[in-house]
Write a structure and sequence with these properties.
- By secondary structure, the protein is mainly alpha-helical.
- It has a domain of 176 residues: Four Helix Bundle (Hemerythrin (Met), subunit A) (Up-down Bundle), CATH 1.20.120.
- Helices cover 80% and strands 0% of the residues.
- The protein contains 6 helices and no strands.
- Helix 1 runs antiparallel to helix 2, helix 1 packs antiparallel against helix 4 and helix 2 runs antiparallel to helix 3.
- The protein is globular, with a radius of gyration of 35 Å.
- It starts with a helix and ends with a helix.
- InterPro entries: CYB561D1/2 (IPR045150), Cyt_b561/ferric_Rdtase_TM (IPR006593).
- It is a multi-pass membrane protein.
- Its cofactor is heme b.
- Pfam families: Cytochrom_B561 (PF03188).
- GO terms for molecular function: heme binding; metal ion binding; transmembrane monodehydroascorbate reductase activity.
Length: 253
């Protein structure tokens, strides 16, 4: 009988002790789970910030490459067509070469970032166009390095291929900037209206300036009265020795 009483008292004390301890244990477990979930959220938030920075840097590199440096090189070589020889022609040629070289380097850095850090499932237009664009950029650079001399047989073919490929790369690059802005908006839910307006205004100015090069000489001549402009004799009108004519024909700027 005493044993049963002692067993009953022990059960009662044990129950009371469990009732007192269980809230403390549960609160400790909840605190641990809350700390763990907050830690996971912090890690996820840090990864999101890192990914957002990488996406922004990728967009900056490609927009600087395809949206500024490459059109600058095209404008420089376009302006050189009005120059025959001299220091100005060399400066425009070097501006063209250096701007296109830096454009290729920035595009390559952006391509490396996209292949290493992004999900390259190629399920959207921006990624598919971008892969083809990377290949065309490097092909255009290699064609530029194997430029034949003026007067050679393959010069006209090289010029046609270089011009067509450069035009295609420029148009695809501009198109991919807009598709990249749309992909950025879908990925981050951030507004892209301001950047779209800025790039559109820039491309319209570049296109206007590019087309304006052909009309500038014609516009300047509109103010010249016919007959007042001195007539300069051409090479065909000047009688030169055969050796001198051969030198003029083979000489290039």
């Amino acid at each position: 009988m005493q044993f049963l009483q002692k067993l009953g008292f022990f059960c009662i004390h044990a129950s009371v002790l469990l009732l007192l301890v269980s809230p403390l244990v549960s609160s400790s477990q909840e605190h641990t789970k809350g700390a763990s979930s907050r830690k996971d959220n912090n890690i996820h938030e840090q990864m999101s910030h890192k990914l957002l920075f990488e996406i922004t840097l990728h967009g900056f590199l490609l927009s600087a490459s395809m949206g500024f440096l490459m059109p600058l090189g095209i404008l420089a070589i376009r302006m050189s067509h009005r120059e025959e020889c001299g220091r100005r022609l060399r400066i425009l040629f070097y501006v063209h070469g250096l701007s296109e070289l830096f454009s290729v380097l920035l595009a390559t850095a952006g391509a490396v970032m996209s292949f290493r850090n992004f999900n390259n499932s190629f399920n959207n237009k921006h990624q598919r166009v971008g892969v083809g664009l990377y290949g065309l950029i490097w092909l255009q650079a290699l064609i530029g390095f194997v430029r034949p001399q003026r007067g050679s047989k393959g010069r006209s073919v090289w010029f046609s291929v270089h011009w067509i490929l450069g035009t295609a790369v420029s148009l695809l690059g501009i198109l991919n900037i807009y598709t990249g802005l749309q992909a950025y908006h879908e990925k981050t839910s951030k507004g892209i209206k301001l950047w779209t307006i800025i790039f559109t205004a820039e491309f319209c100015f570049i296109a206007f300036f590019y087309l304006f090069q052909d009309k500038w000489v014609y516009i300047r001549k509109q103010g010249v009265i016919l007959g007042s402009e001195p007539v300069r004799p051409t090479i065909d009108q000047v009688v030169l020795p055969p050796e001198k004519q051969k030198e003029l024909l083979t000489e290039s700027c």
